Amino acid sequence: MAWLKLSDARAKEWRRFRRRTWAIIALCFSARGADAAFGLHIIEHAPSAAAQSGARCAANADRDPEHQHLQIKKGI
């Protein structure tokens, strides 16, 4: 399986990439935790998908009323 081996330089690049990626994830986790713990409201919280409805969706607001019959009816 020689084709799966990386050169030393490439392996070093991947290690650095993984280390930096986990550092960024840890930084984001810490920032969100501090925001929630101290009530800083720095990070805007998005509502869950279940809390969103089509009535408040901006995409539905632009639709022409005479084309309402072309929309798929939900729940049928």
User: What is the count of helical runs?
Assistant: 2
What level of helicity do the residues show? Answer: 40-55%
Largest sheet: none
Structural class: mainly alpha
Mean of residue pLDDT values:
78
Percentage of residues in DSSP E strands:
under 5%
Q: What's the shape? A: elongated
Computed CA radius of gyration, to the nearest angstrom: 24 Å
| pLDDT < 50 runs, ≥5 residues | none
Total number of beta strands: 0
User: What distance separates the N and C termini?
Assistant: 55 Å
Description:
It is built from two helices and no strands. The chain is elongated, with a radius of gyration of 24 Å. The model has no long low-confidence stretch (mean pLDDT 78). By secondary structure, it is mostly helical. It has helices spanning 8-38, 58-61. It has a domain at 9-40. The protein is 46% helix and 0% strand.
Concise structural overview:
The protein is mainly α.
